[in-house]
Design brief:
Number of strands: 12
Order of helices and strands: HHEEHEEEHHHHHEHEEHEEHHEE
CATH architecture of the domain at 6-155: 2-Layer Sandwich
Strand order of the largest sheet: 2-1-5-4-3
Pfam family, one: His_kinase
Radius of gyration: 51 Å
CATH class of the domain at 6-155: Alpha Beta
Mean pLDDT: 79
EC number: 2.7.13.3
Structural class: alpha+beta
GO molecular function, one term: phosphorelay sensor kinase activity
CATH topology of the domain at 6-155: Beta-Lactamase
Largest sheet: 5 strands, antiparallel
Protein name: Two-component sensor histidine kinase YesM
Number of helices: 12
Strand content: 15-25%
InterPro entries: Bact_2-comp_sensor_kinase, HATPase_C_sf, Sig_transdc_His_kin_internal
Low-confidence stretches: none
């Protein structure tokens, strides 16, 4: 199926339905008005011709009257008209053109008792022959003039109207094209925005477009919208499925939490009795972590509370790693009250213990919090050189893959943040100027 831009379709439709009919009707109207004016002009001239019969009374004997008669006709029909006087038998009594008088065939249609006109062809020029029969003198008064001379004014007006009709038609065509071009351009911009939005937000490009019949911009826009909506529906199904799985996991993790609290409390009491400080610290820290996770149904908390939990987690890990340094840098104190999902930082810090610690030197865990425009940025890193820089791009790709069964750490945090706050937020990894492996969290800034 051939592609034809909407602006050309709209232009063709408007031309066929409106502009061309308007032009044709205008031309027909101008022609009808012109013919009516010509007919009216002829009738007026015939009435004048009837009223000059009285000159004939002294025509043969009075040359002055003949001259006056001739001058009157000249003033009405023009100097290039021919004037004749014929008897009832159609014999020439007077003529201003002896040559035309020789053509008897021109006068065969003269009818007695009538005032009328008809067309003749003299010297290859169309002329109008007007006559009036004088019943008192039994003669014909005849005037022969070219059509151009009689209808000159009418034809000039007709030409002016024709020029106006053509100009107005061209103007309408140009306006229609400009308007249709504006519609087409607007649709093109809409299509580009839909496509760029889909690519930027959903990282999805329609690869099946080549199999779809495309007629114009409306088809493209419709196809793009349908594909985007279909993809959004699929994404929403995935989000719902992930949410159900998260709820199930959450319910499973909350099985008899009081039993866990009581068990940890008993361990703490027993450790205190036997003066085993490490076990007491471990049990108290674990109890706080469990209470933080299962204490209420709210998914969101503040950065300040997240940091408190991280400190408890660090205290637990210090039992295993005594030479552990933990440092927090905050650009603005009000950022501590910014919203964040529960257990956003803990999996990231835990990832450092799993992959960023070589067990040979002191471990330094650093958290830097700052704001950039409408983003709150939390960077977590340990001060050790990261050499496998080629793996960074692969890690970022895996975190954004829909069905990648990677670790439940960074990927889980990334997906939860995107579901909660949108695709513009989440987790990414990078290597900074000091060659440290950095996990960067992007959150919306909320005053």
């Amino acid at each position: 199926m051939m592609y034809l831009s909407l602006k050309y379709k709209y232009l063709i439709l408007t031309l066929v339905v409106f502009i061309l009919p308007y032009f044709m009707m205008t031309i027909i109207y101008i022609n009808n008005v012109g013919e009516y004016q010509k007919k009216l002009l002829i009738e007026t001239r015939l009435e004048v011709l009837k009223k000059i019969h009285y000159f004939n009374s002294s025509f043969e004997s009075n040359q002055a009257s003949t001259k006056v008669y001739h001058e009157v006709l000249n003033s009405i029909w023009g100097s290039y008209s021919d004037f004749l006087l014929l008897t009832e038998q159609k014999d020439i009594k007077f003529s201003t053109n002896s040559h035309i008088s020789e053509h008897e065939e021109y006068f065969l249609k003269l009818e007695p008792q009538k005032t009328n006109y008809y067309k003749i062809d003299y010297l290859n020029v169309e002329r109008i022959l007007m006559y009036s029969f004088d019943s008192f003198n039994n003669c014909y008064y005849v005037v022969i003039a070219t059509s151009d001379s009689i209808f000159k004014e009418v034809n000039n007006k007709k030409e002016d109207l024709m020029a106006f009709a053509i100009a107005s038609t061209l103007l309408l065509t140009i306006i229609t094209f400009l308007y249709s071009n504006k519609i087409s351009t607007t649709l093109q911009m809409l299509i580009e925005r839909i496509t760029s939005y889909r690519k930027a937000i959903y990282h999805f490009e329609d690869k099946e477009k080549k199999h779809v019949w495309i007629n114009d911009e409306l088809d493209i826009a419709s196809h793009e919208l349908n594909q985007t909506i279909a993809y959004m529906v699929e994404k929403e199904k995935g989000y719902v499925r992930e949410n159900y799985e998260a709820q199930l996991n959450n319910l499973q993790s909350q099985i008899n939490p009081h039993f866990l609290y009581n068990t940890l409390d008993n361990i703490n009491q027993l450790a205190m009795i036997h003066e085993v400080e490490e076990i007491s610290t471990l049990s108290v820290g674990l109890a706080k972590l469990f209470r933080y996770n299962t204490g209420n149904s709210e998914n969101e908390t503040t950065i300040e509370k997240e940091l408190e939990i991280i400190e408890e987690y660090i205290n637990i890990m210090k039992i295993r790693i005594s030479y552990l340094v933990f440092d927090i840098q905050i650009e603005e104190n009000d950022l501590l009250q910014n919203a964040i999902l529960k257990f956003t930082l803990q999996p990231i810090v835990e990832n450092i213990f799993k992959h960023g610690y070589n067990h040979k030197e002191a471990l330094s865990i650093n958290i830097k919090i700052y704001r950039k425009k409408n983003y709150v940025i939390i960077e977590t890193y340990n001060k050790s050189e990261y050499k496998d820089t080629a793996r960074i791009a692969m890690l970022n790709d895996k975190m954004n893959e829909e069905n990648h069964e990677g670790s439940i750490g960074l990927k889980n945090v990334n997906r939860r943040l995107k579901i909660k706050y949108g695709e513009a937020y989440g987790v990414m990894v990078l290597v900074n100027e000091q060659q440290y492996f950095v996990s960067r969290i992007l959150l919306p800034y909320k005053k």
